[in-house]
Amino acid sequence: MLSNITPPDRRSVTQNSAREVAVEINGLNKWYGTFQVLHGIVLKVRQGDRIVLCGPSGSGKSTLIRCINRLEIAEEGSIHALGVDLAKPSQQTHEAMREIGMVFQHFNLFPHLSVLQNCTLAPMTVRKLSRKDAEERAQFFLKKVGIDSHAHKYPAQLSGGQQQRVAIARALCMEPKIMLFDEPTSALDPEMVSEVLDVMVKLADSGMTMLCVTHEMGFARQVAERVLFLDAGRIVEDQAPEAFFTAPRSERAQAFLAQIHR
């Protein structure tokens, strides 16, 4: 199990603080050239929320979470994470960004570094941990995702599912307060998808704040507290999973689910 996924010193979260606002977005607009990819996004995420973003390709899902991580910069609107305005570069902004982990579609592991080295690099350079402490933390999280026996292998020696579990462990080694997932299973062979989803389910059970872009609707139904359905750069629906999957309000969401359930 991935219960108690954070070491003891990071588990003292009170009931009240667990529901404080983690991310707040207001009036977010984003363009690529003349094409507007996000239209007036308004979203509030509380600590401990588990949110799945779904919708057709090109609907703005990945762009939205990349804006939260400042991999994309929106031209209009505001994003506050953990109480910090991310649009205003400052020491507070840099500190807030350290609390946001991200797992990408294509793993993005350093091929010339071992699994252990991939997991210790950021804690040593950003968190300023000693090598000993960073390796202990890495072993802790590698064990939690079931990949500790491969700590001294290189990414090319692992399967796609194993590499993605390493990517999750690497993000967790920074002990973030918010985790973003950008279609973490879409690059995997079908038989490897379940092992990554199992890790994510256990991570969700641990109380981590999660925003996940995915086409895995079974995962969304099992894990999410809220499902956001995006279309043409707008949040069309924001519902509890059961309501979304059984009685979507918009015609666009109805058509989307009808295609999936064929």
Describe the protein's architecture and organization.
Helix 3 (115-125) packs across helix 4 (131-144) and helix 5 packs parallel to helix 6. A hairpin with a 2-residue loop joins strand 4 and strand 5 (84-85). This protein is globular. The protein is built from nine helices and ten strands. By secondary structure, the chain is α/β, with parallel strands linked by helices. It has helices at 61-68, 91-97, 115-125, 131-144, 160-172, 190-205, 217-223, 241-246, 251-260; strands at 21-32, 35-46, 50-54, 76-81, 84-85, 100-103, 178-182, 209-213, 226-231, 234-239. Mean pLDDT is 89; it is low at 6-18. Helices cover 35% and strands 24% of the residues. The strands form two sheets. The protein has a six-stranded mixed β-sheet, with helices on both faces. A four-stranded antiparallel β-sheet has the order 2-1-4-5, covered by helices on one side.
